[in-house]
Write a structure and sequence with these properties.
Elements lengths: L1 H7 L3 H7 L5 H11 L2 H16 L12 E10 L8 E2 L6 E10 L4 E8 L5 H9 L9 E4 L11 E4 L7
Parallel strand pairs: 1-5
Antiparallel strand pairs: 1-3, 2-3, 3-4, 5-6
Helix pairs in contact: 1-3, 2-3
């Protein structure tokens, strides 16, 4: 249940309102005792690795390419990462994703609006702990204008640790 509560971003007390027989305190206690960012990242790597072993994942690609891009997410103003976006004209942040050519997210993180996204293109690859190791990145790192500029970069093995 803790995985469900964290995965839906519902929160323990809201989830308890919809799950009979469990209290918000029980869900919160269990999450605090058995859930950590390290364990979450290990679970993500395990999930990506299991998906990569499926035959169907190879129908779209071989895992050597990744696309990186961000999506604006609305947030309240009382959030440490929230800023008013010049591009979108409203408060929020950027959910930045690295999606493999096998159509699975290798890495996702939340960044403030207005930061230079190019830094996060490489950071996501360095923090990827799965067995899927892309060598080519397709990303857009310039401001959006009438003419869109895209970048395709080949990575050397020296960038991975």
């Amino acid at each position: 249940m803790t995985t469900f509560v964290k995965g839906t971003n519902m929160g323990p007390y809201e989830a308890a309102r919809h799950i009979p027989g469990v209290s918000g305190h029980e869900l919160s206690y269990t999450a605090n005792r058995h859930f950590s960012i390290v364990l979450l990242n290990e679970a993500i790597a395990d999930l990506v690795n299991a998906y990569a072993r499926l035959d169907i994942s190879q129908a779209w690609g071989d895992g050597t390419a990744v696309a990186a891009d961000g999506t604006h997410m609305d947030t309240c103003l009382d959030n440490l990462l929230a800023e008013t976006s010049v591009r979108y004209g409203k408060p929020g942040g950027i959910a930045y994703h690295h999606i493999s050519d096998t159509y699975i997210a290798l890495f996702t993180h939340f960044i403030p609006c207005g930061v230079w996204e190019a830094v996060h293109i490489i950071e996501g690859l360095l923090k990827n702990t799965s067995e899927v190791k892309p060598t080519t990145v397709h990303a857009e790192s310039s401001p959006r204008r009438t003419t869109r500029s895209s970048t395709s970069t080949s990575l050397s093995s020296a960038t991975r640790t």
